[in-house]
Each structure stands twice: as C-alpha cells, then as structure tokens.
What does this fold into?
Amino acid sequence: QVQLVESGGGSVQDGGSLTLSCVASEYTYSRNCMGWFRQVPGKEREGVASIYPPSSRTYYDDSVKGRFTISQDSAKNTVYLQMNNLKPEDTAMYYCAARSGGAWCGLARTAFNFWGQGTQVTVSS
It folds into this structure.
C-alpha cells in the first residue's frame, strides 16, 4: 500500500506561484505513473499533470500548459507541481495520485490506484 502525503497548498493572489510536494511512502513509486488532480465542490476530480518517472515523460491538461510544471526527485520519493501565474479558476483541492503498476501514464482519474489526502489551493483576484 503506497501512502502519499501532499504539502505546499495555501492562499495566493492572482498571478502568484505555489509549489506542491507529494512524498510517496515506498520506493516502488518511481516505476509507476504519478499525477496531480484537483477538485472543486460539486465537480468531478480532474487531471492536471502527470509524470512517468522511468522516462520523465509528462502530461498536462490544456488549462495549465505553460503555467504548471510537474517534476520528480527519485532520491526523495517526491513529485512536485510548480504552479505559476495562478488564476482564481485554479482554486481547488489538489490531490496527488499514483498508479500501482504498468507503463501507461496520463490524466484519467480512474487509472490511478492510490490517493493522498489533498491540499487546498486558493487564488484570489
């Protein structure tokens, strides 16, 4: 069972930046896809960015391309989400997720097996 712990959320002004971190409890995370998702009340959880650590291939939702960057530090079992030029519509609970195996990687929520507790990001105008 992989445990994921997010941190780094907070409140910022429109145009500000935040960096989210997700620490995985097991080394095996480094072989499987890791992703960041977000959810606002009343809406489905949506994929923001993901990374396949063996190749460092990344995937982004169109709404965050050019503003968000996902990266990894295998030595620390950690995945990061650098968020720049934040907008009020980025306000959401952000969740880290991991797949349990396989070479697939992307932004399909149902493909991920493990989830963190979430960290809140609030962007005010």
Summary: Residues 27 and 75 are 9 Å apart (CA to CA).
